[in-house]
């Protein structure tokens, strides 16, 4: 360790401890911010010290869950440096590196826009790229711009590094086109295909020639088995694939995972097809980093949920189920898991801070419509509660079944009042609403603060 | 009364919740006893001037806009004639740019537009993103606020004397400098504001419906029965407040 790096690391650690002691939110970005400011190259040096290298995960949706699953799998055999509270900018990676003394393997989720720099600085052994959906356009500009930056970043990966891509996402799959050291993952079970592309489907046009793709099966948004009728650009053959998928509402799913190393029968305790995608992505990354089929299997079955993405929180006689909705594709999938058992009362909380997207127009790209005729009561909450309420009314919710309660804590308590003992209250928060909700539940001692290993 | 809307390229230009704007027009027409019929007009589909009481053109990502640009530009005369005969029109974001004379890229290229609005758009270095509050005076003496969200790299420069949709109170507007937002030609309005615009600005939805009805009947725009609009007012207040606090600074 160079003297300079040593001192900076020590200083950053001290700030992290102070931040946690002050209860300010786990110190997950503060010390990294400090180090990142003082000497960005320290990240390169700290990452280079990891004896088993670095794996990176990026995507619009699922990166926190995918990284957490990979950590569950790989953490059995390696000491990890892992940015487990979702601080996914370079400063968050710096934090994880600083606070993980003696780590052997780095596992980092990376913000889509930060991926090029993360690749350049951490020199990963494997990079998993799972999907590009239209996220918060006010933050990133447009999707194609991002894809172009990814393309340039991936082109600079050495041939020894494994590129893991979702073969079901045309834009992402194309990044591995022609690459020898690549793993392509996806889903193959047409029984779970959507009858048509959803409104929020983003990459509808052929990456080669611009013609609309034809889908033999569209699973989640534009992810699926696509083919361009004009030039023939199509989903590549898949290496790691989930087949024979059985979904069990909000409980979980079962599927067969076919990989070059073997076939696994997996029982996953997370709901929805999108979590099957996360599991397949995590497995492919873990295989790329040398995990055996047995550890992949154990890790997946052992996994319950990543921070705030899907949580079941008991409040005595009633249960709160939290499903994060951060953009149209994620929200559509959360709503889809509710279709088989529509809850009597639903709380939807829309905030418009930077991390939620200041532009709330995305709620119009969410397909609330199928659910609304069946739900008994919806409480619209968050800083843009009225805007959300309008969206729901236009989606077909009768006004007498809508309540607009901007204050989250009041909305939560009101929702709990309305449901009967022994039933579930489903809450769909945007990102900062999820943080606020966890804050409320932490104060009531129903969940642990996230820097205490809340992910179990 | 039946109001016919021609929705141009809904499969391509739909990025900023354009279906929300259409839903607002449909609902508010319905509550006044009118029926809204929406025709999707895709690439190569016929568009006869006079057939539609209102034309709607939304925004898309670069690839989508490039895909329809030629087809749209070829409709220059049909669209000009439709608006000239009194059809209403709402164009948002990319649609607003494409209905001007054209778009000048940073590489010097020029993509010709429809030429309905007297403006030209020039690609900028940075995006202008944020909440916006406008003051509009579509009828002399009747100043009304409009709250939305903008996200555009293009700087749209109105010709001297061209009528904007409104004056920027908070936010960037057309070019971040002139203090103008959007453009108006008769019953045609273009704007960068999405969000979508109409749910929380019901007066504008009603103005457009009244213009469309005027086209349908050949009479003056009718007074529409007022609606309670409680949620709409709450949503507007929050959005206007956002623009005050964090709208783009010129």
What does this structure look like?
The complex is a heterodimer of chains A (about 450) and B (about 250). In chain A, a hairpin with a 2-residue loop joins strand 10 (about 250-260) and strand 11 (about 260-270). Helices cover about 35% and strands about 20% of the residues of chain A. Chain A has a nine-stranded mixed beta sheet, with helices on both faces. A six-stranded mixed beta sheet of chain A has the order 12-13-17-14-15-16, sandwiched between helices. The longest helix of chain A is centred in the first third of the chain and has 19 residues, at about 5-20. Chain A is globular. Chain A has helices spanning about 5-20, 30-40, 40-50, 65-75, 90-100, 115-120, 135-140, 145-155, 170-175, 275-290, 295-300, 330-340, 385-395, 410-420, 430-445; strands spanning about 55-60, 80, 105-110, 125-130, 160-165, 180-190, 215-220, 225, 240-250, 250-260, 260-270, 310-315, 320-325, 345-350, 375-380, 400-405, 425-430. Chain A has two domains: about 5-15 and about 25-300, 3-Layer(aba) Sandwich (UDP-N-acetylmuramoyl-L-alanine:D-glutamate ligase); about 310-450, Mur ligase, C-terminal domain (Protein-Tyrosine Phosphatase, Chain A), CATH 3.90.190.20. By secondary structure, chain A is α/β, with parallel strands linked by helices. Chain B is an alpha/beta fold and about 250 residues long. In chain B, about 30% of the residues lie in helices and about 30% in strands. Chain B contains six helices and twelve strands. In chain B, the strands form two sheets. In chain B, strands 2-1-3-4-12-11 form a six-stranded mixed beta sheet. In chain B, strands 5, 6, 7, 8, 9 and 10 form a six-stranded mixed beta sheet that branches. The longest helix of chain B is centred in the C-terminal third of the chain and has 17 residues, at about 230-245. Chains A and B meet through helix 13 of A and helix 1, helix 2, strand 7, strand 8 and helix 6 of B.
